[in-house]
C-alpha cells in the first residue's frame, strides 16, 4: 500500500504541474481536462472545460495526484508538508530557492542535529515543502 497526496489547485493545476516539472524534474504521466471526461459524468461548469479534472505527477519514485477542483471550492494546504530528500545540501538549497520563487522560505536550509541540511518553504500555490538531507 502507498499513500499518495491528492492536491486541488483551485484552477491553477496546469500551472502547478508545469512549475513542479521545471523545479523538481517531475513529469506528468497523465492529464485529463474536464471536457475530456466520458459522457454521463458530473456537469462541467461553464468556463471550466479546459481545467484539469485529474493529473498524475511523477516525482522520482513518488506520485502526486492533482486537479483543479471545482469553481468556488476552497484551496487550503494547511497542516501538512510534502517532504523531499535531496542528495546534497547544495541540491536542497537549489530546490528551496526554486520552490520559493513566488512563495516564501519558512526556514533556510541549514544543518540540524538530525540532518546535514534541512529547510522549509511554501511555494506560490501555498503548498509547504520540507527538504531533508540526511547522511
TrEMBL record:
SUPFAM superfamilies in alphabetical order: Glyoxalase/Bleomycin resistance protein/Dihydroxybiphenyl dioxygenase (SSF54593)
Annotated Pfam families: 3-dmu-9_3-mt
Domain PhnB-like: 3-130
Protein name: VOC family protein
Naturally occurring in which organism (per UniProt): Cupriavidus malaysiensis
Phylogenetic classification of the source organism: Bacteria, Pseudomonadati, Pseudomonadota, Betaproteobacteria, Burkholderiales
